[in-house]
Design brief:
Largest sheet: 5 strands, parallel
Number of helices: 29
Shape: flat
Radius of gyration: 45 Å
Helix content: 40-55%
Length: 854
């Protein structure tokens, strides 16, 4: 049941609540709404000003302390916008000083928090009634309404123009007609560029105008924190400033133009007399600033719609062509080249047909983002139409265009379109054209774009997923004049169905073929002999789709022409046209690569059918080759990634093993980095033995590194015992090869290394442990390891003895050949002992942190 009207004292009243405390702001809003008011909220004073400029309110309910703009500052500004508006302050800081400052701006109703509904209701009703009495007794209110009507008449024409200076000129002229000021000025900021329009209404001096410009610069910096350029560019209209005019500024009034939360300009009034701007005038100027904010916002949106493509957000075709013209004229003036790159998505129609237009639009947006990210900041990027995009390099050479095309192509190859929904892998075709300042006058921006389009079509015919450059443009330094248009080319303004090279020595047949093909939309080059046809094909490889050759021609006949053309471009579809249609001629033609053998005379329908079949075959051929290349690239890329991943896994594996072995070596405090040393020595010795491949070396390295891994199972009381080991201790110690073997053999990667670990304590004569193996029963890696392990142990210092010298160590190893060590391995060791000794010293020095010994 609705509350009676008597219980809704604020029914229909419009109230703005300004408070930065969200919870209290919401509480006030709900309270006012229960009293019948239409309440709206603002989070701080700046937000409140923006809201106040766009709507009428009967009452302001304002907090005093806020972070951005406090309540006192907001009320000062608000009373200039609406001098008669009512205001109630809700604050927890109602000090005498605060109340005195509020009284100075005409606010007398100050309520203390927390909120009391009855008190707020009574104060709000009283303040609204008082504001109504003030407005009724002030004649300025009617004048303000009249000014607002005038302002609307000013704003409407401004919205019809497309540039900021045009809008400002109209607004400042209209404002000057209704505001008593010597100079009325408006500053607008668009894309960071200032536009200042000053309208002079009275006779003032240049010094007066300069003071106004300085006021604008200082005020803008104070409000926005940003500096305007010096000197500030401006445009003056109205009366001309003369030296005899008034030089001193009497009074000024400056208001910010706020768009959202950004300072986008200023409105400034300057008068020759003091106190020239009463409250009514200042309120009107605030509304001017509000309307200017609307104009700026509208201009931003109109400009965005006028120059941007709605799907991708890139520049649209109209603006691209304007920019191409501007950049072309600039390139001719400053004598630098420019590059145009036209990009087309391959088989885009199939994307739309298969997945729908929303997915197609998503692909277009993603490609637009890729192009934006790839292009330089100075490049122009836009959507040229449909699935075509254009990139303009304003000051680019051919190398710049080629590099940009490669970057774009590679980025698209790596990109997955519509991820997580369709995972599309798409390709593009690109055409690159370069215009130089010395090009003839008829080679303008339109011709540049046409050349880029032609080059892009060449990329399509070459199998897509690639780029092609246009033929170099002729320059004034070239001896040859520009090539005139081919009268037998396809119809102007249309892409050719294909490019055909006709070779026939009969003028009538040649003319007939040329005319029929041209009517069918083909671009035709016609010659009268095989030699000329070869020259044409060699000059522009991959430029032609089809060769139509007569069988019998003077010099190089049709069959020989087919054979030689194939060596230049094996993708050209070769067709023999002959009046001598014998079985032998047909077989010979097909043997040398002819796609078809056609008998003269040909009908138009027959020629059309033959050409259609030929082009379809060529497209299939090129697409298949491109697919094979792309597949090969994918296989190579995935193989490289797999190898890289395996390398990372192996590196991580080796790091883990080395870390584990390092812990073991650290456990035996007197052995240092023994495991790492014997691995390096074992690999050096293994390389001196015949038949060692990479896998064998890897297994020997792992076995040598991990040979003592089984000591994990030996207690410290035995492993670190200072005295001699007891028989029971040896029983435990001799189990470490088997423990190590069991740890490692679980990994297929370390299975061969596990066997080395298991046998590394076996002796060649069978006296070792744990299995008592002898001779070749011991794997080669273990036999090899036994020698270098003994060498490292004897050459290294221990706490119970000093290190042996190299001669003493070699003598001992030689003496143990056939007993502890394999004689063949010992012989290999002795032949390389000096190299092994140098490696040992180097490793030991690195471990000690000392320079390597000689």
């Amino acid at each position: 049941m609705a509350a009676p009207a008597d219980n809704l004292p604020l029914l229909g009243r419009r109230i703005l609540v300004v408070d930065d405390d969200e919870l209290f702001r919401t509480l006030v809003l709900r309270t006012l709404e229960t009293l019948g008011a239409h309440a709206q909220a603002a989070a701080d004073g700046r937000d409140g000003l923006h809201t106040l400029m766009g709507a009428d309110f009967d009452l302001l309910v304002v907090d005093l302390r806020m972070k951005e703009m406090d309540g006192l500052g907001f009320l000062r500004e608000a009373r200039q916008i609406w001098p008669w508006i009512g205001a109630v302050v809700l604050t927890g800081y109602a000090t005498p000083e605060a109340c005195h400052q509020l009284a100075a701006v005409g606010v007398s109703r100050v309520l203390e928090k927390p909120l009391d509904t009855a008190v707020l209701s009574h104060a709000a009703v009283a303040e609204i009634e008082a504001a109504a009495r003030r407005a009724a007794t002030d004649a300025g209110s009617e004048r303000l309404r009249q000014q607002l009507r005038i302002l609307r008449l000013m704003t409407e024409p401004a919205l019809k123009v497309q540039t900021l200076p045009q809008a400002l000129r109209g607004l400042v002229a209209g404002l000057a007609a209704v505001v008593p000021a010597a100079i009325v000025g408006v500053l607008g900021i668009e894309d960071g560029v200032p536009a200042l329009i000053l309208h002079v209404r009275e006779s003032v001096s240049p010094a007066f105008a300069a003071a106004v410009r300085q006021l604008v610069a200082d005020r803008y910096q104070a409000l926005s924190g940003r500096r305007l350029p010096e000197p500030l560019p401006y445009e003056s209209q109205g009366i001309e400033c003369r030296p005899e005019g008034v030089a001193t500024v009497g009074s000024t009034f400056c208001i910010p133009i706020i768009l959202g939360r950004e300072i986008r300009g200023l409105v400034v009034l300057a008068a020759t007399r003091p106190d020239s701007f009463p409250p009514g005038e200042s309120a009107f100027v605030y509304h001017v600033a509000n309307h200017l904010s609307t104009v700026l916002l509208a201009l931003d949106r109109m400009r965005a719609l006028a120059i941007h493509d709605p799907v991708t957000g890139l520049l649209n075709r109209t603006f691209l062509e304007q920019e191409a013209r501007r950049l072309w004229l600039r390139s001719r003036r400053y004598r630098h080249p420019m590059v145009a790159i036209l990009i087309d998505i391959d088989h885009f129609k199939a994307v739309n047909d298969s997945y729908g237009h929303p997915v197609g639009d998503g692909v277009l947006r993603e490609l637009g983002d890729l192009l934006r990210a790839t292009a330089r900041e100075s490049d122009i990027v836009g959507r040229y139409g449909g699935e075509e995009f254009l990139v303009i390099l304003p000051n680019g050479e051919h190398a710049d265009g080629a590099g940009c095309a490669e970057r774009i192509l590679n980025r698209v190859r790596r990109h997955v379109f519509c991820p997580r929904t369709h995972d599309l892998h798409l390709t593009i075709s690109l055409g690159v054209a370069v215009a130089h300042p010395d090009d003839p006058e008829n080679i303008g921006e339109a011709r540049l774009l046409a050349l880029a389009d032609s080059a892009m079509y060449e990329a399509k015919r070459a199998g897509r997923d690639c780029w092609r450059a246009s033929r170099p443009l002729p320059t004034e330094a070239t001896d040859e004049p520009p090539t005139p248009p081919n009268p037998a080319s396809a119809r102007a303004g249309q892409r050719p169905q294909g490019r055909v090279l006709v070779a026939d020595d009969e003028p009538a047949v040649r003319a007939l073929l040329t005319a029929a093909l041209t009517r069918g939309g083909y671009e035709v080059t016609a010659v009268d002999n095989g030699a000329q046809a070869l020259d044409k094909a060699a000059q522009t490889p991959y430029a032609y789709d089809v060769v139509l050759a007569d069988l019998q021609m003077p010099g190089i006949d049709g069959i020989e022409l087919l054979r030689r053309v194939r060596t230049i471009d094996d993708t050209i579809i070769r067709i023999i046209v002959s009046g001598h249609a014998t079985v032998d001629n047909a077989i010979a033609s097909l043997r040398y690569g002819a796609f078809d053998f056609v008998q003269k005379p040909l009908s138009t329908d027959q020629l059309s059918l033959v050409m259609k079949r030929a082009l379809e075959y060529r497209r299939a051929l090129l697409e298949n080759r491109q697919y094979q290349r792309h597949l090969s690239d994918m296989v190579r890329e995935k193989s490289a990634r797999l190898r890289e991943s395996l390398d990372h896994i192996r590196a991580s594996y080796d790091f883990t093993l080395e870390a584990l072995v390092g812990l073991l070596d650290a456990r035996e405090r007197d052995v240092g980095q023994h495991s790492k040393r014997v691995r390096a020595l074992a690999l050096a010795l293994a390389q001196r033995l015949p038949g060692m491949d990479a896998d064998s070396l890897r297994d020997i390295g792992h076995g040598a590194l991990l040979h003592d891994i089984g000591k994990i199972g030996v207690p410290d009381s035995i492993l670190l015992k200072n005295g001699a080991l007891l028989p029971a201790d040896w029983e435990v110690m001799r189990r470490h090869p088997e423990i190590g073997y069991r740890i490692l053999c679980a990994s297929p990667y370390l299975r061969n290394a596990a066997e080395i670990v298991y046998a590394h304590q076996e002796h060649f004569d069978g006296t070792g442990y744990p299995r008592g193996l002898r001779g070749d029963q011991i794997c080669l890696g273990a036999r090899l390891f036994a020698v270098v392990d003994a060498y490292d142990a004897m050459r290294s210092r221990r706490i119970y003895r000093e290190a042996w010298g190299p001669e003493q160590t070699v003598t001992e190893i030689r003496a143990q050949a056939g007993r502890q060590f394999d004689p063949t391995v010992v012989a290999a060791f002795l032949s390389g002992q000096q190299e092994i000794e140098r490696l040992f010293l180097s490793l030991q020095s690195a471990e000690d942190g000392a320079p390597p010994q000689p």
